[in-house]
Amino acid sequence: MIKTHKIALRPNRDQIAWFYQQCGYAKFAYNSALSDFKTEFASDNFLSMYDLNKRFNDHKKAFDWTKAQDQRAAMYAVHNLGRAIDNWKAKRAKFPKLKKRGCKHSYTTDEQSVRMKGKRIKLPKIGWVKTYEELRFRDKIVSVTISRTAHCWFASISVEVQPPLHRCPASLAYVDWYTSTADVGTSRQIERSIYPTIGIDVGISTLATLDDGRKYENPKALKRNERKLKREQRKLSRKVFLSQNWYQQKRKVERIHYRIACVRRDAHHQATTDILKCASKIGIETLQVTNLLKNRKLAKALSDAALGGFLEKLKTKAASLGIPIVQADRFFASSRNCSACGHKKDDLTLSDREYHCSHCGYRENRDVNAAINLKHVAVGYTET
Fold first, then answer.
1. DSSP conformation class of 342
2. Helix, strand, coil % (nearest 5) of the chain?
3. CA gap 25, 126 in Å, rounded
4. pTM of the entire structure?
């Protein structure tokens, strides 16, 4: 099993310049290989990834400056192009395009010359670079990708780790493993649910609402920084395109977007981690985010909440901890159904924040009622 730890770097000016050189070299290899593929494709000749890599190795000998670069950056760039072409052939993506100057800066290197020692990482041809934290995993390093986001440089270190045999953390453990003495060589698993089943209802105003009434607020990072973002974007629109001042202003806009993403991501991680600390089973709803974004009145608020990313983090963490997640049917009306008697209220609107059942008189918060219905789905009391 391969896991990746993304660590922020603390490079000096020379190291930053080196990173830019390798990113440019990777773009040069990608565009050169793509040009060769287009030329041969016009004559009905499909080149494989290995043919493209071999052609680039012959082509780069005409440039002396390529000898001082990290050759693994070019190799992985050509490999990425090969995967993009395979996706295009399988009709999973569009035909790859040439990479322009100023686009995303990143390059990949392998594990042969990479070492991690404390808060330092050793990269090929550049040496040791300081990091803000240590590597979380201690197993074999598979690959390292250096990338830039706004004003920060990161190292995404992929490590091949052994999959866990059972849930180890004591605060999350609800499974006892033992070996049967009557039948040697076989093992049985006894599930002891010491934590309850939880239903989670996600929304815009409140990020997540649990069936017991606990709520996790939405930070609304875009709405809080929207005024500042608009001001900086107006300044960017007045600059001469691709001028030095335009690039400087573009960095300011990138920093604001990076801060918005960090605030949103931090809220998602804190909420999902806190939820999984006390859950043995989770019931959630199935959201079609692309369809929800078609509503122009709610599109910006939905994008700011990033409900799809929140549910994806919840699923990933739950899978690694062994917590089962039950998704309700796409058309299951969790908000309209009464959690006490099951009566469906068809005249419920978005402005009704309290659910009042006209059949049994049950009153509850709208989101809490939906979370209870999702809990019933997870337990098995409700057919979706």
1. -
2. 40, 20, 35
3. 15
4. 0.79
